[in-house]
Amino acid sequence: MGAYILRRLLLIIPTMFGMLVVSFVITQFAPGGPVENYIAQMSGQSVSVSEGVIGNAEGDFAGQNVVKSTDQNENSTYRGAKGIRPEILARIEKQFGFDKPPLERFFTMVWNYVRFDFGDSYSRGVPVIDLIIQKLPVSITLGLWMTLLSYGISIPLGIAKAVRDGSRFDVSTSTIVIVGYSLPDFVVAVLLIVLFAGGNFLDIFPLRGLVSENWSSLPWYSQILDYLWHITLPITAMALGAFATATMLIKNSFIDEISKQYVTVARAKGLTEKRVLYGHVFRNAMLLVIAGFPAAFVGAFFGGSLLIETVFSLDGLGYLGYQSVINRDYSVVFATFYIFSLVGLILGLISDLMYMWIDPRIDFESRKV
């Protein structure tokens, strides 16, 4: 087992390197970028240096003539650079680190990422790691609670549906599951807001934030209640679709295992139905569910929480990544992609180890990878 874990950990290195290569190459051909956005900002303003609109710090280029003539930089690779003095354009490139060749920029980025040094945000002018740490609690909260709630409901419900396949209970619960699966998260979120957050009906839950403004002054038990009060609607909206998918997966997996011959043999030996179900079927049927756990968690951690964070005004990593893509803030985009990819690979290894914990018959040492 130790050799397998070591091999998997070593495989993370080329995998992450390949992901960074593909992402970096794509951004080189994508239109726009931090320099062009910066130039657009300059052009959108009156380009009055006295207003301090140029540079991350006010007055970076104060006292300089930004626009010299309309025929300069006609051949520039940056859109909108016509009329910008070459020395000013060179300083802007240097400010964002684009004054170096792409290959040198890439390997510098890789070396920094190995040390978890993600640099500064192009659009916000603050260290990327500080932004990630600031937004991380929101995404962790949504991802963990959604995963725990959806699996906590779907596992017992899926088993019950499998055991009672075709019964009235199975049909009635399938209706709820299908409705939950067909409704997108953001539609459920809007519906919950209309019904329970000051819409046309009840005004029970808050619309924004994870905690109230006076949360720090509340006693510990009130802090817990306030926190749960704020996350009820967003977690419900996220968990509904996830619980529906997981429920059907678990049901079908259990039905498939129950029909196998070893279950018939176990029943013939006189084992109780509960012993057959949880002593034999459970560990085999749950292997498929565990295999999809890393993808489900990472999806909830990032993609699944994006719309929910937007609807409920929760400033997490999903919303940060979306804003960074729109603003071509490559430093934040690469950093969030790097972190989510790394987390996904590590969770993939953990899920394999959970395979063996559930079913000791699985032997990873016999595998070459």
UniProtKB/TrEMBL annotation:
UniProt membrane topology term: Multi-pass membrane protein
InterPro entries: MetI-like, MetI-like_sf
Residue ranges crossing the lipid bilayer per the database entry: 9-30, 142-163, 175-197, 227-250, 285-312, 332-358
The keyword Transcription regulation appears for this protein: no
Occurrences of domain ABC transmembrane type-1 (ranges): 136-351
Xref: CDD domains: TM_PBP2
Pfam family, one: BPD_transp_1
Major subcellular site: membrane
Matches recorded under PROSITE patterns: ABC_TM1
UniProt keyword Cytoplasm present: no
Name used for this protein in its record: Microcin ABC transporter permease
